[in-house]
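Predict the 3D structure for this chain.
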Amino acid sequence: MAESNGDDGFAPLRVKRVVRETSDAVSLVLDVPAHCSAQYRYRAGQFLTLRVTVDGQDLRRCYSMSSAPVEDDLQITVKRDPGGVVSNWLNDTVSEGVEIHAAPPEGRFCLRDTDDEVVAFAGGSGITPIMSLLRTALANSSRRVRLFYANRSRDSVIFAAALERLAKENADRLTVAHHIDDDSGVVTPSAVGSFISGAGAADYYICGPGPFMDTVEAAVLESGVPRERVHLERFSIEPVPADVADASGQTEEIVIELDRKTVTAGYRAGNTLLQTARIAGLRAPSSCETGSCGTCMARIVSGGARMLNNDALDDDEVAEGWVLTCQSLPTTRTVHVVYE
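Done. Predicted structure below.
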């Protein structure tokens, strides 16, 4: 097979089509070179890490596929965001024919291989990976699907027409409930409880703004759904809690094993293990940097650290010492971490 990526793992993907979804959201259909098509096959719910240069800065951001693997096109959908340098640049300047460098698909926010119902909650641009999951479940299985989709206003609903079409084509299997904050206020636990009432064995997928996700997750778990049935995909990270920041201030050094090298690095208070590795000159693996994909996982063999967010590792992995280094702040004087 011919080489598809440069040394940094990114390949140029040409923008084949630009679709304006709403006034502040755009879908980009990407053309994958034939010689690297195998590397860019993906599972529903996964994302691409893009590398772009904006105002002279080399930036990397992750965007979920809104297309489904059963479809011919590879498509990501990007919503404008206040202060979102890359998201706004993609919305404002990208046109057909432009090349965007992307790393191969990653992520664990994927459908489980069961026949159980899919219950999905999306808020705003959180519909992007959810759309991929819905399209795949409807095309590849006989699973029933229900979607609760929350937006601030009616004109901000991404994929409104596509969802209406899917609901008509799959009237016996797909239920779509729209929640508009302007009409009904923010989503409440009771609204979540009413929506999931009557669901039997099901898997729950949640993506959207942090407060929305917290409300939905708490309500779903409160209803008795086992935690292993609840799947989360976050697009942003929360501020570091004060107690965690204070604990990290006591750390002096981090020992890092990567690529058959062992480096001892001085620690700068507030930095994650991943940031410390980078400052030490190591090319530590990473992608989403929100605790969702698992790309940056490593094992702590001595010392301790606390993860700010973990939507990728299961309890057994955590018990064995695995952490997401992008989300981990040290809590002991020294920490020894190994990338395996």
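The chain has nine helices and 18 strands.
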